[in-house]
Amino acid sequence: MSDADSDSVSTQTSLAGWTDVTAQLRQNATSRWGLYVIAVVIAVAVWAFIDGVLLGYHFAETYWHSPVTADPGARSLLPPVGITNEFGTGVWAHPLGTDHRGRDILARLVYGTRIAIQIGIVATGLGAAVGTVIGAISGYYGGWVDDVLQRLVETFYAIPFIVLMIAIMSTFGRNLWIAIVGVSVITTPVFARLIRSEVLSVREEEYIEAAKAAGVRDRNIIRRHIIPNSLAPVLVQATLQVGVNILIVAALSFLGFGAQPPTPSWGAMLAQSRTYMLPNPWFSFWPGLAILVTVVGFNLIGDGLRDAFDPRLDD
Amino acid sequence: MPSTRDLTTNTRTRYTTMSDTPLLKVENLKTQFFTDAGTVRAVDGVSFSVERGEIVGLVGESGAGKSVAVESILRLVDPPGRIIGGEITFDGKTIVGFEEDPDDTNEPARSEQMLSASEMRSQIRGNEIALIFQDPMESLNPVFTVGEQLCEFIEINRGLSGSDVRERAIEILREVGIPQPDERFDDYPHQFSGGMRQRVLIAMALGCEPKLIIADEPTTALDVTVEGQIIDLVYDLQEEYDTSFLWVTHDMGIVAEICDRVNVMYLGEILERAGVDDLFYDPRHPYTAALLNSIPRPDQAGELQPLKGSMPEAIDPPSGCRFHDRCPDAREACARTHPTLRRVTEDEQSAACIKHDAFETDYETSRQLSPGGVSMVGENSE
Q1: B199-237 b/e (C-beta count within 10 Å ≥ 16 → b)
Q2: Which chain B residues are Cβ-neighbours of A228 within 8 angstroms?
Q3: For chain A, which residues make up each domain, given as ranges?
Q4: N or C end of chain B: smaller count of CB under 10 Å?
Q5: Interchain CB contacts (distance < 8 Å): A and B
Q6: The CATH number of the domain where B46 resides is what?
Q7: Distance from A138 to chain B by nearest Cα, in Å?
Q8: B190–A5 C-beta distance less than 8 A
Q9: ipTM of the complex
């Protein structure tokens, strides 16, 4: 009996072990670094949201550099501090240098974090939530419901996402919330398909049969029994998907469909820096690095989560 | 044979209130699975009943159709399976019913009295008929505490709310013998042993005070000592709550221990029905006899005689009597004639075997010879 017990415990990948999962995340060196990086990035984004959106850059403009307008008399295209190029030598006032309009690059990076994280997390969350519901319904009921929902999802899957995004933004306007909705629309199929395959195995579990036999309504079976037991791969995928969506947002901004100037965003910074790549490569380097670090951070957490949820890797 | 009946080990007699209709009545139930490979007649014309306060056994090898019969009673048969005929009534309600089809050509229409899907869910399942599953390891949702799950079931079926639910849940956990129920209430299923989990499942079934509990091989996954405890528990609770049980199992030992009446199922049909003592001491169907010969019994020395062969596929059942190719008593006619379940003794013992047809003619003859003689063969097929 004890054998059977320990066996069933170790094969459970449920949220009941949520504290175990976070403990495992912290124990694993790489996912721990991912946690640190993302904690910092999110803290910066929260600050950027408070000051940038709610206070209209009040603190940045009073005590630091405005990310949207150049300081009076600021030189443009300065390199980072201590480095000299044809435009001058970097100064401590602008530690990472300035852009083509003389705005501080660090300030623009900091306030650009908001767009990346906001779209990355909100769009992924929306897409994951809608996708989970669609996939769970589709997998639970099967039959024609499944057919209809899956064909619908596959249709979205089949359209190249950049084309779809550009179509959405051209139709409804180039604004942040439309970008978020657009990204979540192209994220939804990923989750709908993922959770459906998970639900197909969970719905055969005996506790689902037991719930049916006890007269639990279908929607409560899906909500309370099906979804919580199918959620582990969704969490892993969601974390990885935040990284992917940050790249998508950056690509959209790069193509001019993201946040509109002068709002700072990493993708737009990259696009603007193209022209000045040769005289001041640092202008391109910093937003690229920011995107890289953030995406890698989310991927490290995602990999750590996957390991933590994988019972075969239990020590 | 009074001599054997005196040896009866199960001396418990239970008074059953015989009202006009049994609590659960299954008549000529047919459930088939329409697969790509063909139609599987999983349950093919099964009839049985459960009286109030009675423990009825449904016995058979794996694949006999026991579980499908149970799913049919709760109308939980998943596609491609479908109930295509028969009638199930429970406590005056029609769970399954079909309109008469005089031409017998069209697919029969569902009866109008039949409960709707939502009535099944809100009135029958969990509420009046509860199910205890085979595998206590798999029947609890791993992500919620035992208490939460118990409360969910009680809330749905008893209409209690808030702290009343918790109180009732803890009370019922104590009743099924969980030590420190108020502490164990907040534990997750994996923190319970197999026997304790089965107690929790019984608590879930009992918590809604159903009229009938269907136990689908509830002790198969447990070791023998725990099995004994669970059976004792069921026994006690049955007496306290006066719940009826339909006990589905392949274990003749359990049947002997707890059942009042037994239905022996084979390949979607019931081959013998009898009171538990009649069944064990005077089996009338060769299949029952063979089953009993294949288990060790303290009162019968000698070698065990396992049943030869294995049960054929229900997709292509043998002609005539479905048991004839494994039957030690098979005759030539068995491959041609399909016997129906008919009464073979005074004590409402029924068997579906051709050899009792011969008895019938014998008795007909004997009755003609000596008018007033007691007919041992009761009603013919209706």
Answers
A1: bbbbbbbbbbbbbbbbbbbbbebbeeebbebbbebbeeb
A2: 141, 143-144
A3: 20-65+78-313
A4: C
A5: 88
A6: 3.40.50.300
A7: 16
A8: yes
A9: 0.73
